[in-house]
Amino acid sequence: MSVSQPVAISPSAVARLVSRWYFVVTIATIGFFAWVPFVHAAVRLGRKSLYVRAAVFGAAAALMGVLMSLSPKDAAGKVVGTTGNLLTSIAVVLGLVLVAVGCVQQAKLRREILRHVPGERLDGPDPALAAALAARDRRAEARKLATEDPLIARDLRIGRPDLPRNYDDGGLVDLNNAPANVIASVCGLDADTAAAIVDIRTTVGGFAAVDDVGAVVPFGALDRIRDRAVVLPA
Fold first, then answer.
1. CB of 142 within 8 A of CB of 155?
2. Residue 142 — φ and ψ, nearest 5°?
3. Cβ(216)–Cβ(193) under 8 Å?
4. In this predicted model, what pLDDT tens digit does every residue of 171-202 receive, in sequence order?
């Protein structure tokens, strides 16, 4: 069954321009603050793994700082000696690596944030919502089958959750055949209303359409009954 997906929103030119601060921070600080965009992305996207990535970049930045501080310097603050030049070179190379790797990863995160619809889960459709939509599709399919081939529908026990069956109708109830307590449970009705439905169907010999129960069902419950009920030959 297909599940409706959120509609993507095209980011404005201003949003695209502003979002480039990821690269500005990373490049301008030679990687020292490359971890900051990852923290921002983690908050925006709700992805805990990005905090780990931020910690890795932060540790690498701290290592750069240690290497720079260990480099021997003269009175003017200029790095001197072979050891000093080596440590500084390692720190610079590490910084360039952080800039390169950080910008590549941040480019992908930036695109995700620009496409992000407020309230949308970026780890896929909400499981509860996906299940509800799938059940609604199954009800529509089962209701169509009940209209086109009621005999097959009865064999599949569509609308009879009180009976053993293998067919999943998405949560329908047959107003013409299901017990009152099942109708009450599936349609969210009180026991008296469900009993009245059963009494009427017994008197008239079964309903021809779901809306036939409108005379005894509260107006506020009609939408749920139309969504959950089906009528098969009694």
1. no
2. -70, -40
3. yes
4. 999 999 999 999 999 999 999 999 999 999 99
